[in-house]
Predict the structure.
Amino acid sequence: MKVNQAIPKSRITITYDMEVEGTKKKKELPFRQLLIGDLSLGNSKERKQELPHRKIYELNSSNLAEVMEPMGIKLNITVPNHIKEGAEDIQVDLEVNSMKVFDPNTIAQLIPELASLLQAKKLIQEFGSTIDNNRKLRNLLNNGINNVQALEKIQEELPLLESYKFNKDL
């Protein structure tokens, strides 16, 4: 098999002018890059194979997830806990099968402490829109805010929210 048949046409070519025996010619070279490296911190399935036996992947913007998934890349990292003061660091285990894994919301769903905070945020937003759309509920809440005894009872029960656990079924 000829090399030209094995290499697909490049989208980027480098063109330069050269002089051969007094005649000027334009020469085009395809721009290709080969990246060799352990981008998985040693967690890839490919890493366990010898270099000559590893697969060469053609990478473009549309097949990135298809290339990443079979590699079995996993990241195990520890991050400081900024949710609770004095709490121990949080262990995060990411299975990198696409670039979507690095989306902040995806990462937050993998950490139970953050997932429960996001669920609480969603519930508060839904409650706010319910208040806006329901005049009876809005009046009931306004009456409750003006009631000192009701406010004191709510303040007593607020610390119980710290033990709130994330429920995926909601």
In short: The longest helix spans residues 112-133. The two ends are 58 Å apart (CA to CA). The chain has two domains: 1-95, 111-170. The beta strands are 13-20, 23-30, 73-79, 90-96.
